[in-house]
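Hi team,

As requested, here is the filled-out complex form for the NAP run. I kept the field names the same as last time so the parser does not choke. Let me know if anything looks off before we queue the next batch.

— J.
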Amino acid sequence: MKVAVTGANGLLGGDAVAQLAAGHQVLAIGRGPSRLGPGGFEYADADLGDGHSVEIALLGFRPEAVLHAGAMTDVDGCERDPEQAWRVNVGGTEQVARACRALGARLVAVSTDYVFDGEAGPYREEDLPNARGFYARTKRVGEEAALLLAPDCAVARVAVVYSGRKGAKSSFATQIVEKLSRGEVVKAFSDQLVSPTLAANAAEMTGELLLGTSYRGVLHTCGATVVDRVTFAHRVAARFGLSGEIVGVKTADVKLLAPRPLRGGMRVEKAAALLAHQPLDLAAQLDRFHSEWLARSAG
Ligand SMILES: NC(=O)c1ccc[n+]([C@@H]2O[C@H](COP(=O)([O-])OP(=O)(O)OC[C@H]3O[C@@H](n4cnc5c(N)ncnc54)[C@H](OP(=O)(O)O)[C@@H]3O)[C@@H](O)[C@H]2O)c1
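And here is what came back:
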């Protein structure tokens, strides 16, 4: 099949390209030059924020399915530059959805747990979003743009994405490993409940959702364990055999531009019932993260 992936240089997009290119003809769409390793796929440099580049790349390639994983993910950056956040997260998703509509292609648009306010998580797909902050609100509008404009569309929500893959972007999880390895203190929010998501596992689930199902609507494709960030840091440290200081901080005590959901996290029963690739619990994710890390250090 012909499959396109946006956000190809990103955490989730990078793993998705690697997995999909093993069995399909893939167009990887990223911003700037490719930062992916060599592989059997085409690459296009296109800007989600300029109103047309990604749409043109998609119409040229004519995919039958598109995984839209590109987004402005800097939560506080979106607060500083709301117009760019809108251009990329809403306008970019519109570009992708319009192209899918024109081509009759299936679309999976990736979204976030931040569409919820964090008052009463963990959340199910049926729970009403109440996005706060520019990142969250533009992602929420992007969900609707995808679902309304692309006739064959699913929205896949993930959270706190991390990857140990070589070349993968830095994340909370990799910073824990790097800081503890250097003997530095790790600070983590003690009052934020989240569903950490290994990119490789999310790529498997969203890839199957895209190519192996006809499911339409919202699906939570995050990790299966809901955990506070301090406990997450301790679990990472334990899996990597690292000791050192992990200090819990309260969200309200840190100056952040955008609000953060506190009692967040997402329930994954629906994905577990629908997909052969299961949402992994934290122990299984961390085993895989550790293997990725060893492979990256070896290579
Ligand atoms: N990361 C998380 O913790 C997290 C949590 C919840 C939901 N999500 C969602 O998961 C999806 C995948 O994100 P991710 O985790 O893979 O984060 P990521 O690593 O930041 O990937 C996002 C990708 O989008 C690209 N991008 C940003 N602006 C662009 C533009 N104007 N034109 C073209 N590409 C652009 C980025 O390019 P550069 O690499 O050049 O910056 C990046 O490669 C997104 O929909 C995100 O909202 C992520």
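Two things worth flagging: Residues 7, 9-13, 30-32, 47-49, 69-73, 88, 110, 112, 139, 158-161, 169 surround NAP (CB under 6 Å). The two ends are 31 Å apart (CA to CA).

Thanks,
J.
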